[in-house]
């Protein structure tokens, strides 16, 4: 009899355990996600921003027409999901992209969302509306769009000058929320109104950003969190100590450097930490409009002198990626395969042979052991810029180039570069979507505002357009690789490495995915929940 | 005395006017403005958009016009709008002032309440082990930068107690308020306390060697009466001077302490505003600090007369 009771008790216990396990795996409603923010963003308007200091806290306020799946780390055409658009379709000539919009969606102030809001947002981005954005850093994304037209309240069409399948990628970026027509761009800077899972509560500069649950969110049952609160802490040591002490549920995304990751893991062993590429490349901008870098031999010599692996080893304990303009695989979906990459001068594994070749080019240009070339290496006064600049100067010594570090305050960096008042610059380039159209047109096309070096090659420009119109991914990839290879051979903007960075959260935070090929698109947080 | 007061007040006004000119033009000498920073952050610049924004903010005007516009507004109590947050500058500055004032007040209190008694003890016990120990403490206080001390406190509290003091902007009780401010105040006040202690010690030692102290002892006055009634009262003047100067210098230490402890006070806000070239915030805030410092100096001078009846201010 006793054994029967024991069996019954065991059975009951196992049922209870099983149900507990099930419950632990199911999202729970409630709780505030507490994070620190590394910086005080200039304002709350994502359309005017060019840093994920804005995306991270405010992406949850909005929706896009479509978005990358927030639970798949790698953004790709396969992971595009509808949001404010229920579906989309291309015309037979691939020059019209039509979105059927979701009905019954409301802005946070209760006004209905319609196709007019979509048209307003993109007219604003294309500079076609009466109201203007104070800054419009991604205007070039829509250069192939003729106009956006509404067909009734819930259908909208993008009319293109030529096929551009990548437009979908750019519409899915965290940088492309739909804004309401009835709120001015100025008000969106101070009190953003969206349709998203969280409503804006307050932004106190240098202090905090608070969002609260949108009870009328069109996705029923979401978000799980009652709100998200960011405490702005600019001192990294203080912020990390506060995370370790449990004051925060999560670090600011990709804010943890590889060397710091060890400290966190030793002080908070229960924390979950992931390391992912950020799709931010560290590169050299070369002023090729004046001597000495107007000489292609010197530019090539400099590129040959780079020991990229040494940069990665010193700065990231080996955790970084070497590639061309596009983020290398496996996380990057457009980066060159290793065997192609290694055929580019300077990317070969034999650094000594590369540098020997570089010295010959320098001697051809009139420099040698008795006549060194003196250059200034300008960079921003931020550790992420300064540290690699110091290593670069050290490496350039091997080919008769004596570099002097020229540290420039952020406020003066871009005006200085725009004036071409520099010789060499150590620069970081963030790619907001892993897509060649974004990278090529923004950074390398003739006349682009972010083409800091004024690199202009009409032949490559034609190739940009060819790859841009190709709808078949398998055919587009080799075209992109060829362009990327040419850009490196031309020393347009030599890429040194692609950085990786860490993000940590407490074990009870569930549903977080850190994107592996963009650090700009994964912060909707509508299905993040707290298991406590 | 009245004429002296009037003269001092007039000089204070002249000083503040000079400061306003220095602040305004120094800020304009620093390369770049808010528009440059905004476009630098966006990674591009459109000359037409840049000119439009400069016009909107009024920074395209000649410098003299800008200065007159600012100082006129300041005198009328119109402090303009923050370029960054687009909120009224006063609305941004005012809530932060009490936070820094409390922190500074507590740091000064810490400095005086620790520095003066320990300085007296050190002087009275000159040459003993206690004196040497206190001198080591004061030396370390002068040597340790407040940011390092702050980080040390934070790291130790996390390592030892798994806790970290995070600034609570809305303390509900006095105890909570004290807990919020005490640790950062101690971090920033430690250097001040050390300085106060050293000055008190040396001033006391000088006074203790005076004839009237020997006379007091000869008349049979107790040690306590000699040390605290006769000696300290006469030794306190240089200490008051130092505390007054420290009050003015404290803002430098507070910038670092507010950053390390993440306290949303005016000191850290000022640095951020300078970084953004947020002229309305920087100009008005620095003027406010100048007013405080000028009045602090004035108050110290007046206190001299209170503590030392021999001092009389005449024309």
Characterize the structure shown.
The complex is a heterodimer of chains A (about 525) and B (about 325). In chain A, about 30% of the residues lie in helices and about 20% in strands. Chain A contains 16 helices and 18 strands. In chain A, strand 6 (about 145-150) and strand 7 form a beta hairpin. In chain A, helix 8 (about 295-305) packs antiparallel against helix 11, helix 14 (about 435-445) runs antiparallel to helix 15 (about 460-470) and helix 15 packs antiparallel against helix 16. Chain A starts with a helix and ends with a strand. Chain B is mainly α and about 325 residues long. Chain B has 13 helices and no strands. In chain B, helix 9 (about 175-210) crosses helix 11. At the A-B interface, helix 5, helix 6 and helix 13 of A face helix 2, helix 8 and helix 12 of B.
Topology of this protein?
The complex is a heterodimer of chains A (532) and B (315).
Chain A (H helix, E strand, L loop, with lengths): L1 H24 L6 E6 L14 H7 L7 E3 L11 E3 L2 E6 L5 E6 L13 H11 L19 E6 L4 E6 L6 H5 L13 H6 L7 E7 L3 E6 L13 E6 L3 H9 L13 H10 L4 E15 L9 H10 L2 H9 L3 E2 L16 H4 L9 H14 L8 E8 L2 H14 L4 E8 L1 H9 L5 E7 L5 H9 L13 H12 L3 H17 L5 E11 L3 E2 L18 E2 L2
Parallel strand pairs in A: 1-10, 13-14, 13-15
Antiparallel strand pairs in A: 2-3, 4-5, 5-7, 6-7, 8-9, 9-10, 11-15, 11-16, 12-16, 17-18
Chain B lengths: L1 H28 L4 H9 L4 H11 L5 H14 L12 H5 L2 H29 L4 H15 L2 H16 L12 H35 L2 H8 L4 H38 L5 H11 L2 H29 L8
Helix pairs in contact in B: 1-13, 6-7, 6-9, 6-11, 7-9, 8-9, 8-11, 9-11, 10-11, 11-12, 11-13, 12-13
What features would you highlight for this structure?
heterodimer; A: 532 residues; alpha+beta; four-stranded mixed beta sheet; 18 strands; disordered N terminus; B: 315 residues; mainly alpha; 13 helices; 79% helix; globular
Largest interface, chains and sizes: A-B, 45 and 43 residues
Strand order of the largest sheet of chain A: 12-16-11-15-13-14
Bin the helical content of chain B: over 70%
Number of helical elements of chain B = 13
Low-pLDDT stretches of chain B are: none
Q: How far from one another are the termini of chain B?
A: 7 Å
Strand runs of chain B, count: 0
Shape of chain B: globular
Largest sheet of chain A: 6 strands, mixed
| Poorly predicted runs of 5 or more residues of chain A | 1-23
Instruction: Report the average pLDDT across residues of chain A.
Output: 92
Number of strands of chain A: 18
Number of helices of chain A: 16
Structural class of chain B: mainly alpha
Radius of gyration of chain A: 25 Å
The oligomeric status of these chains comes to heterodimer
Approximate shape of chain A: globular
Kindly state the mean pLDDT of chain B as a whole number? Answer: 87
Order of helices and strands of chain B: HHHHHHHHHHHHH
Beta-strand percent range of chain B: under 5%
* Helix share, percent of chain A: 25-40%
């Amino acid at each position: 009899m006793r054994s029967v009771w024991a069996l019954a008790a065991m059975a009951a216990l196992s049922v209870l355990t099983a149900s507990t396990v099930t419950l632990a795996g199911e999202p729970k409603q409630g709780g505030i996600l507490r994070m620190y923010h590394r910086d005080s963003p200039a304002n709350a308007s994502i359309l005017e921003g060019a840093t994920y200091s804005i995306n991270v806290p405010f992406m949850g306020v909005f929706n896009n027409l479509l978005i990358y799946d927030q639970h798949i780390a790698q953004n790709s055409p396969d992971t595009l999901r509808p949001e404010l658009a229920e579906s989309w379709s291309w015309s037979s000539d691939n020059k019209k992209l039509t979105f059927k919009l979701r009905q019954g969606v409301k802005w946070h102030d209760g006004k209905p969302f319609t196709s007019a809001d979509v048209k307003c947002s993109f007219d604003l981005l294309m500079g076609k509306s009466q109201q203007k954005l104070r800054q419009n850093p991604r205007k070039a994304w829509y250069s192939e769009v003729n106009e956006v037209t509404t067909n009734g309240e819930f259908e909208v069409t993008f009319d293109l000058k030529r096929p551009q399948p990548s437009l979908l990628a750019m519409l899915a970026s965290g940088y492309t929320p739909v804004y309401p027509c009835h709120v001015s761009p100025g008000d969106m800077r101070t009190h953003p109104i969206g349709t998203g899972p969280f409503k804006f509560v307050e932004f106190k500069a240098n202090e905090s950003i608070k969002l609260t649950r949108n009870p009328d969110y069109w996705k029923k049952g979401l978000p799980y969190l009652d709100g998200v609160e960011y405490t702005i802490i600019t001192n990294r040591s203080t912020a990390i100590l506060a995370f370790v002490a449990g004051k925060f549920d999560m670090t600011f995304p990709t804010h943890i450097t590889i060397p710091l990751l060890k400290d966190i893991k030793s002080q908070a062993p229960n924390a979950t930490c992931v390391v992912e590429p950020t799709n931010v490349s560290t590169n050299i901008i070369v002023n090729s409009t004046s001597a000495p870098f107007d000489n292609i031999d010197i530019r090539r010599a400099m590129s040959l002198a780079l020991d990229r692996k040494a940069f990665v080893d010193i700065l990231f304990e080996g955790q970084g990626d070497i590639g061309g303009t596009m983020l290398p695989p496996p996380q990057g979906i457009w980066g060159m395969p290793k065997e192609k990459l290694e055929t580019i001068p300077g990317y070969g594994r034999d650094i000594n042979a590369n540098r020997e070749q570089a010295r010959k080019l320098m001697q051809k240009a009139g420099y040698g052991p008795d006549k060194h070339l003196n250059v200034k290496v300008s960079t921003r006064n931020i550790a992420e810029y300064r540290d690699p600049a110091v290593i670069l100067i050290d490496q350039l010594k091997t080919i008769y180039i004596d570099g002097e570090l020229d540290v420039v305050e952020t406020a003066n960096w871009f005006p200085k570069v725009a004036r071409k008042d520099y010789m060499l610059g150590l620069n970081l380039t963030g790619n907001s979507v892993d897509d060649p159209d974004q990278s090529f047109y923004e950074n390398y096309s003739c006349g682009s505002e972010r083409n800091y070096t004024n690199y202009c090659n009409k032949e490559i420009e034609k190739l940009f357009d060819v790859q841009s119109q190709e709808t078949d991914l398998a055919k587009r990839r080799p075209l992109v690789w060829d362009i990327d290879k040419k850009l490196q051979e031309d020393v347009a903007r030599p890429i040194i490495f692609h950085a990786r960075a860490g993000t940590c959260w407490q074990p009870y935070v569930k549903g977080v995915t850190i994107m592996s090929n963009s650090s700009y698109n994964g912060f909707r947080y509508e299905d993040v929940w707290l298991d406590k | 005395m009245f004429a002296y007061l009037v003269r001092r007040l007039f000089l204070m006004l002249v000083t503040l006017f000079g400061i306003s000119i220095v602040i305004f033009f120094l800020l304009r000498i620093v390369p770049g403005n808010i528009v440059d920073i905004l476009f630098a952050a966006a990674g591009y610049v459109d000359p037409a958009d840049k000119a439009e924004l400069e016009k909107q903010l009024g920074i395209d005007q000649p410098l003299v016009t800008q200065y007159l516009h600012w100082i006129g507004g300041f005198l009328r109590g119109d402090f303009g709008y923050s370029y960054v947050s687009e909120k009224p500058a006063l609305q941004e500055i005012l809530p932060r002032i009490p936070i820094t004032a409390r922190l500074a007040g507590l740091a000064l209190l810490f400095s005086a309440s620790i520095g003066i008694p320990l300085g007296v003890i050190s002087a009275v016990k000159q040459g003993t082990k206690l004196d040497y120990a206190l001198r080591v403490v004061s030396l370390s206080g002068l040597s340790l930068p407040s940011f390092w001390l702050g980080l040390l406190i934070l790291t130790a509290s996390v390592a030892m107690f798994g806790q970290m003091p995070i600034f609570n902007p809305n303390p509900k009780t006095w105890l909570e308020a004290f807990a919020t401010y005490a640790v950062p105040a101690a971090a920033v006040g430690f250097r001040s306390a050390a300085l106060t202690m050293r000055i008190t010690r040396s001033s006391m030692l000088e006074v203790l060697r005076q004839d009237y102290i020997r006379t007091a002892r000869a008349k049979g006055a107790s040690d306590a009466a000699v040390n605290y009634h006769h000696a300290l009262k006469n030794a306190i003047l240089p200490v008051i001077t130092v505390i007054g100067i420290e009050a003015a210098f404290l803002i430098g230490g507070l910038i670092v302490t507010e950053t390390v402890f993440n306290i949303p006070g005016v000191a850290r806000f000022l640095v951020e505003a300078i970084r953004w070239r947020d002229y309305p915030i920087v100009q008005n805030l620095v003027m406010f600090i100048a007013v405080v410092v000028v009045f602090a100096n004035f108050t110290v001078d007046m206190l001299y007369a209170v503590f030392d009846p021999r001092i009389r201010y005449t024309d």
